[in-house]
């Protein structure tokens, strides 16, 4: 399973990249605003900086909600760097734009997906990635993981090549469960990745090894 980090924070992106396990980055307008990145020029420059900091795919979301606007914005974003994946919302114009970009060989990520039907449409439109939002479904007492399982089943039935990018991942159990059910990618905060390191037996075992080494020297 590929690991993407879901942030626009360059320090956190670099930390995940340094760990050697990062496969890409996802951002959204809220994450950009959280880092104080506002205005078209600054936003485009920030995407360039993110692409320079990582080796993999970088999802950059369009703001337009009409087809022509999405195409215009998406073409500017895609021209920034071959790593850019044009992120489109799951609305009719987004599906149409997804088909347009996939026909041109430009990578796409269809976002804000909350049902199997939406995931099916994204795959039919040739999306590179589909982003079901696991955490946001869990937030409203709906089983987000079950949705991802169902999408896996449907995609496998027909051999769709669209990769399931489990988004809105919030913690390490989300990551582990996504891996168990065969999600192709997960995107979450840095803590959902570094949290996987933690085990008290690792810490106590290492402390014991070091103490025993000291005794013999
Ligand atoms: C997906 O690409 C989104 O950026 C993201 O995963 C949303 O996560 P949230 O529900 O924690 O805001």
Reading side by side through the largest sheet, how are the strands ordered? 1-2-3-4-5-6-7-8
| DSSP summary, beta strand count | 8
Enter the CATH topology name.
TIM Barrel
> Which cofactor or ligand species appear?
erythose-4-phosphate
User: What is the alpha-carbon Rg in Å?
Assistant: 19 Å
Provide the succession of SSEs: EHEHHEHEHEHEHHEHEHH
Strand percent estimate:
15-25%
Query: Which oligomeric form is depicted?
Result: single chain
The CATH homologous superfamily is named Aldolase class I
- The total number of structural domains is 1
The CATH class designation is Alpha Beta
Tally of DSSP helical segments: 11
Structural class call reads: alpha/beta
Mean pLDDT: 97
Sheet having the most strands: 8 strands, parallel, barrel
What is the end-to-end distance? 43 Å
Overall spatial form = globular
Uncertain segments: none
Portion of residues within helices: 40-55%
Question: What is the correct CATH architecture?
Answer: Alpha-Beta Barrel
Characteristics:
single chain, 217 residues, alpha/beta, TIM Barrel, 8-stranded parallel β-barrel, 11 helices, 53% helix, globular, binds erythose-4-phosphate
